[in-house]
Amino acid sequence: MSLRIGMRIPPRIGEEGIEAVAAWAAQAGLDALDVPELTTEVKAACDKAGIAIGSVDAQGVSQLLSRDEARRADAVASVKKQMDGMAALGGKIMFMCLVPEDVTLPRADGFAIWRETFPEVVDHAEKTGVYIAIEGWPGPAPHYPTLGCTPEMWRAMFEAIPSKHFGLNYDPSHLVRLGIDYLRALSEFGERINHCHGKDTEMLHDELYECGTLPATFGAKYDFSEGAWRYTIPGHGEVDWGKVAVRLDRLGYEGAICIELEDHRYWGTVEAERRGIEKAAAHLAQYFR
């Protein structure tokens, strides 16, 4: 199989501006960028560099799950407008992480709000040709309020909204840290995958002995960690990307695999971020090109 390999833009690389980012991405052999917003400037820079748009971040997502009905209505109108704008520039994938405005909101309550709010959002996605991809980051401790971070929730959400225009951003790193079978998830929910992140998780067995699956009491030893696990670049964690590639190929997935750099070893400077992206891309290229 041959899929586009891209990246979400890390912070230090992003500080150089979109033209420099797109030019470096092309030089590094990448094919796509996930962007925080799709504007004419972003589109022109990517076109000039021969870089495709992987996904576009939705703004104001937490307000879609507000307890306040008026705030939800404003957020729905805003997201619909964002869809219109990105679709006009050729954007197809809208990325979301469904963390509610009130992070103490129980997931069952958040789901009830989502069930009322999202049919209108997805209906507009269908009209504009946009595909929503939700990510399974469980959200901040201790409440972990994000909707759509477990198979239990995906099943309920896809039963409520069967449209393919509402689907998943497949990121196995979150599944690994939660103890969820990331390959079985592909088998059950693969038809709803609209986008993929290239990110991994290393399980830290000594730390698992120290604090179990709870967040470390006195702070994690590493950044991008809560104690018993840490996020890594692909190839440095538990995910068998060869097996992921086989299953995505069988499913007929044609989107991008975009590296999300959250690894303390490749962080803090432009040079470190570039090394991390290059190493991650080289590992993924073994299976997706």
Task: Write structural notes for this entry.
The chain is an alpha/beta fold. 44% of the residues lie in helices and 16% in strands. It has eleven helices and ten strands. It has helices at 11-14, 18-27, 40-49, 69-88, 107-128, 151-160, 172-178, 182-189, 205-211, 241-251, 270-288, and strands at 4-8, 32-35, 52-57, 93-96, 131-135, 166-170, 193-198, 200-203, 229-232, 256-259. The chain has an eight-stranded parallel β-barrel with strand order 1-2-3-4-5-6-7-10. The chain has a two-stranded antiparallel sheet with strand order 8-9. Helix 4 links the parallel strand 3 and strand 4 (93-96). Helix 2 (18-27) runs parallel beside helix 3 (40-49), helix 4 packs parallel to helix 5 and helix 10 (241-251) crosses helix 11. The longest helix has 22 residues, at 107-128. The chain is globular. It starts with a strand and ends with a helix. The mean pLDDT is 97.
In short:
The chain is α/β, with parallel strands linked by helices. The protein is 44% helix and 16% strand. It contains 11 helices and 10 strands.
List keywords for this structure.
globular, two-stranded antiparallel sheet, 10 strands, alpha/beta
The secondary-structure element order is: EHHEHEHEHEHEHHEEHEHEH
Strands, total number? 10
What best-fitting shape do the alpha-carbon axes yield? globular
* SSE-based structural type: alpha/beta
Give the oligomer, counting copies of the same chain as homo and different chains as hetero.
single chain
Number of helices: 11
